[in-house]
Amino acid sequence: DAKTTQPTSMDCAEGRAANLPCNHSTISGNEYVYWYRQIHSQGPQYIIHGLKNNETNEMASLIITEDRKSSTLILPHATLRDTAVYYCIVRGGTASKLTFGTGTRLQVTL
Amino acid sequence: DTGVSQNPRHKITKRGQNVTFRCDPISEHNRLYWYRQTLGQGPEFLTYFQNEAQLEKSRLLSDRFSAERPKGSFSTLEIQRTEQGDSAMYLCASSLVSGTPNSPLHFGNGTRLTVT
How far is residue B108 from each of residues A7, A22, B27, B65, B84, measured CA to CA in Å? Predict the structure, then answer.
């Protein structure tokens, strides 16, 4: 599975959009981009995933560049409860497991 | 609650003792995964099952670790002769793999093991 690069940490004001970037320049054609988050003392929570089209659900939007070498997770109106570590993961089309990096620690502040 | 359930939530044991953790996946999910997570790191893959068959094991899964999923439903992870380095959060996840590729994994809240 391709490696991903994320900033170590980010801050966001409550009520503003949080834009979390991820680079995956070695991604292959059949690999998906997944996002998970982990709130302290809980297991990782699935947010969203996509292949090449932008995706949106009730939690977030995923924007994937046309060359698929990077993506951005957007939380449209961040709240204090969105404070967590966010993991961007590239997963092969037929792969089973997820391979986690160290993620981005998002701190939402008042 | 229909999510992944793990028991116990916390376990403290003395070095050299054996411990066993249980995971109940989401009903009808045919894949079950075990991960380990230490402080400040992302979860690390240990092993996974499809139904009752153990299909992949990480080199992190030493001989002291054994996982089972006897009837393709719940799973147990046993650690024999625990060492202080085994202290970690042990996470279980499940997914439903059918015709669609790339089904998300859904995680439980883990079992935190402390070896003294």
Answer: 26, 25, 13, 20, 23
